[in-house]
Design brief:
Helices cover 66% and strands 0% of the residues. It is built from nine helices and no strands.
C-alpha cells in the first residue's frame, strides 16, 4: 500500500513546485519520513492529493486504500473557504490525521526550504505554531 500511495502521490503532484521552487513531491516524502506507523506513512504520502489534484476519496477507495486511510486523507483535506483553525479542529478529531498533520506542520515550519522570507511567511509560521501546539495538546490528552 505504501508503494501504491507513493506512485499515486507522484502522479498527482507531477509538475507541481513548492514555495521554494522544488518538486512538490518532496514535501509528502518528508512528511512521511516524520511518521512512525505504516498507516501514518501512507496517509502522509496522500495527504495533499485530494486538495492539489483531480483525485477524489472515491478514487482512493477504488485504488484499494482502506477506509481508515481514506477517512484520514479526507480529514486532512482543507476546503478552500474553510477557516484554518476550524480545519485544525476537524483534524484533531481523527488520531491518524492528527499524527500526520503534526509531521506536515514540522515540515511546513522548516524555513530553510524557502529562498527568502517575507512577512507572509512569518504569519504562516505563527499560524502553524498555534496549530501544532493545539494538536500536541489534543494528542497528549488522548494518549
Amino acid at each position: 500500500m505504501l508503494e501504491k500511495a507513493m506512485i499515486l502521490a507522484a502522479k498527482a503532484h507531477m509538475g507541481h513546485l513548492d514555495k521554494g521552487g522544488n518538486p512538490y513531491i518532496l514535501h509528502p516524502v518528508r512528511v512521511m519520513l516524520g511518521c512512525k506507523t505504516i498507516e501514518e506513512k501512507i496517509v502522509a504520502m496522500l495527504h495533499d492529493t485530494l486538495e492539489d489534484s483531480d483525485l477524489t476519496a472515491d478514487d482512493l477507495i477504488i485504488e484499494g486504500f482502506p477506509k481508515v486511510i481514506v477517512d484520514a486523507v479526507v480529514c486532512l483535506t482543507r476546503k478552500t473557504d474553510q477557516d484554518y483553525m476550524e480545519y485544525v479542529h476537524k483534524v484533531a478529531k481523527n488520531p491518524l490525521a492528527t499524527a500526520v498533520k503534526l509531521s506536515d506542520l514540522a515540515d511546513n515550519m522548516d524555513l530553510n526550504r524557502l529562498p527568502g522570507l517575507t512577512p507572509r511567511d512569518f504569519q504562516r509560521l505563527e499560524r502553524y505554531l498555534r496549530a501544532k501546539q493545539f494538536l500536541e495538546n489534543v494528542q497528549q490528552n488522548i494518549l
